[in-house]
Amino acid sequence: MSPSIAEANEALRTAVQQRREAQAAGKPHEAWYAERVAETLPERHIAADMLHDATRLADDEFDEAIERLRGDGIQHEQRPGSLPFLELLEELRTLHLSKSQDYGSESDPLANIRQGAEFVGIEAWRGCMVRVADKVQRLRTYCRTGRLVHEGVRDTLLDLAAYSLLAIVLFDEGRDA
Fold first, then answer.
1. Count of CB atoms within 10 A of residue 82's CB?
2. What is the number of H-type helices and E-type strands within the chain?
3. 19 and 98 share a domain?
4. CB 99 within 8 A of CB 146
5. Within this chain, do residues 21 and 58 fall inside the same structural domain, yes or no?
6. Do 36 and 101 fall into the same domain?
7. For the chain, what is the radius of gyration of the CA atoms?
8. Which of the listed residues 79, 104, 130 is the one where a domain comes to its end?
9. Residues 66 and 107 in one domain
10. Which of 79, 109, 124 is the endpoint of a domain?
11. For a FRET experiment, which of 34, 81, 91, 136 has its CA 20 to 30 Å from that of 159?
12. 93: closest CA among 2, 9, 1?
């Protein structure tokens, strides 16, 4: 039986924790990046099946996503990234999945953005930019007054990052159409 997405996420969290411990123990970054995350994750084909099921991609899109995940197979020398940054990326991923349940549709996780843009007759990525401008205005208010009533600075910045990424997705989608 294939592991669930929750089990795969737990395995990934375990791998991240192992790297944190290696970093805290003072091991050089080569040591904490030399360990393969795949050793703690499900078999590649099981993970691929899970990715396919979880994303509902068409077969050609799925094959392309798997190729991007595989990379070129060459071990590259890399400087370690910022762990807090990578953790924020995971937080954005979780936020996107959660908000897609509230705002998206069964077949389109970005339905709300597309429909809002269509309502006013602009491209979807431009609709996203309107939301970016709203978040920037909220931050201006905070910079001017030192307070926000309904949403904190951190939440606003997360939304700003998410809308920026969504604008890229929608811009690329429109360009590739």
1. 8
2. 8, 0
3. no
4. no
5. yes
6. no
7. 19
8. 79
9. no
10. 79
11. 81
12. 9
Contacts of 138 (CB under 8 A, 6+ apart): 148, 151, 156
CA nearest neighbour of 107 among 57, 36, 71, 146: 57
* Cα(77)–Cα(35) distance, integer angstroms: 13
Whether the pTM exceeds 0.70: the reply is no
Based on the fold, state whether residues 158 and 87 are members of the same structural domain.
yes
Structure tokens at 17: 């924790």
Give 70-128 pLDDT, tens digit per residue.
Answer: 555 555 566 677 888 888 999 999 999 888 888 888 889 999 999 999 999 999 999 99
CA 6/CA 67 separation, integer angstroms: 23
Which tens digits make up the pLDDT trace of 136-164? 999 999 999 999 998 899 999 999 999 99
